[in-house]
């Protein structure tokens, strides 16, 4: 931890203690006048500090992150890899580590032995030793029913024991990042009640600001199909996604994606995708981050269990490029044919319901790509500006239509 951050936390702790004593001396805050403390921004010449990103654009100081996903989709495996990336200061999952971090990983579902297995599997796979993370990764398993951030008592929202315990751990370990797995076990309020969920999220938000740290939690999705990149798939109250500034979805590879990438059924079951859902701090990512489950033997065999355990972890996986293994000459032939249009004078179209004017069959005529892949290639070219929409006069029907043309400057070279 830098001296600057140590001073920040020390000052915040002293300020909090002083404010608490002042509050006790003055009585209830509701009895005190409110001073907004506004300032003249025209005279504000202090340097503006950059946001404190920790891991790619997944985790940031003073902000909350959430990962929405079905049960058993791989949320815990992913956050373990994220935690190890930060603690060991190694790019394990394709996300830049801005600074080595002290990490708290608090698990409410698995017991101590299972959490140790899962961490060990990931460390074995990535070649991380205990020395690599000593003093930087702190773990806990919590199974007490009263260990909650908040609960309802006599019909009133009440701060629970977990809030103060978490604060003390953050202070004691000087935590830069904290993972609470899963969200639903960290509180005991109405999951569908917006005001109650907002109350719990505010507790975490206050801690993240007070101690200049990131807090991340995985959360289950509601019943039904999980749409990648849709933060509304989170189970319960919508205020959760509103309170968490960085929201991501973790979903299994769909049959459509598998068909598009020519992935077999067996391999498809080991692939998951992470998409930005509602990311207020950065531009929403267009492309998914893909991960693959890897089974890791722990080598913990005994006489009773001669095979020992195999535990899965995740690693970054790059999908095959649809444009690979085809020469630029062929791609330019396809683009030339599309740009020329049909013999009737009509231009090709990328509309999903286009028939005679559909552009995707042109791709199939020149390559071995499937219809699904050919359609995706046309969409990708439109998104990137290789193909653009233009208005032209259709001589067959005597009126203007929309068609595709090629942007010469963006042809493959």
Give a topology summary.
Elements: H1 3-26, E1 53-55, E2 59-60, E3 64-69, H2 75-88, E4 103-107, H3 112-126, H4 130-133, E5 137-141, E6 150-153, E7 156-159, H5 161-173, E8 177-181, H6 194-210, E9 214-220, H7 239-243, E10 246-252, H8 255-261, H9 265-268, E11 271-279, E12 289-297, E13 310-317, H10 328-340, H11 360-366, H12 371-384, E14 387-394, E15 399-406
Helix pairs in contact: 2-3, 11-12
Summarize the structure.
With 413 residues, the chain is an alpha/beta fold. The protein has twelve helices and 15 strands.
Structure, explained:
With 413 residues, the chain is α/β, with parallel strands linked by helices. It has two domains: 51-317, Rossmann fold, CATH 3.40.50.300; 328-410, Arc Repressor Mutant, subunit A (Orthogonal Bundle). The chain is 33% helix and 22% strand. The strands form four sheets. Strands 5-4-8-9-3-10-11-12-13 form a nine-stranded mixed β-sheet, with helices on both faces. Helix 2 (75-88) crosses helix 3 (112-126) and helix 11 (360-366) packs across helix 12 (371-384). The chain is globular. The mean pLDDT is 90.
């Amino acid at each position: 931890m830098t001296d600057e951050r140590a001073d920040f936390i020390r000052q915040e702790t002293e300020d909090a203690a002083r404010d608490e004593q002042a509050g006790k001396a003055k009585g209830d805050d509701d009895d005190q006048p409110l001073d907004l403390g506004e300032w003249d921004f025209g005279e504000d010449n202090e340097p503006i500090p950059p946001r404190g990103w920790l891991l790619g654009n997944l985790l940031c100081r003073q902000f909350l992150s959430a990962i929405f996903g079905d049960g058993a989709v791989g949320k815990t495996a992913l956050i373990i890899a994220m935690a190890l990336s930060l603690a060991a200061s190694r790019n394990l999952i394709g996300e830049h580590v801005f600074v080595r971090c002290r990490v708290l990983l608090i698990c409410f579902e698995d017991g101590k032995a299972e959490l140790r297995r899962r961490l060990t599997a990931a460390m074995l796979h990535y070649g991380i030793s205990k020395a690599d993370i000593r003093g930087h990764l702190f773990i806990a398993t919590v199974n007490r029913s009263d260990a909650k951030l908040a609960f309802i008592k006599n019909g009133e929202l009440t701060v629970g024991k977990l809030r103060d315990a978490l604060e003390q751990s953050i202070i004691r370990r000087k935590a830069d990042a904290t993972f609470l797995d899963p969200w639903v076990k960290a509180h005991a309020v109405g999951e569908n009640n917006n005001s109650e969920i907002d109350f719990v999220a505010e507790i975490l938000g206050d801690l993240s600001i007070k101690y200049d740290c990131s807090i991340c939690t995985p959360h289950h999705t509601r019943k039904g199909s999980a749409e990648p990149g849709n933060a509304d798939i989170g189970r319960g109250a919508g205020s959760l996604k509103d309170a968490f500034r960085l929201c991501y979805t973790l979903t299994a590879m769909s049959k459509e994606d598998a068909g598009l990438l020519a992935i077999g059924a067996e391999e498809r079951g080991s692939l998951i995708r992470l998409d930005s859902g509602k990311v207020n701090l950065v531009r929403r990512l267009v492309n998914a981050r893909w991960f693959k489950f890897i089974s890791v033997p722990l080598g913990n065999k005994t006489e009773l269990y001669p095979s020992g355990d195999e535990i899965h972890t995740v690693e970054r996986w790059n999908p095959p490029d649809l444009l690979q293994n085809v020469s630029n000459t062929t791609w330019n032939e396809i683009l030339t044919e599309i740009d020329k249009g049909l013999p009737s004078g009509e231009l090709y179209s990328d509309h999903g319901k286009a028939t005679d004017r559909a552009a995707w069959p042109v791709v199939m005529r020149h390559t071995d790509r499937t219809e699904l892949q050919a359609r995706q290639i046309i969409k990708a070219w439109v998104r990137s500006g290789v193909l653009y929409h233009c208005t032209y006069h259709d001589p067959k029907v005597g009126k203007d239509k929309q068609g595709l043309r090629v942007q010469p400057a963006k042809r493959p070279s």
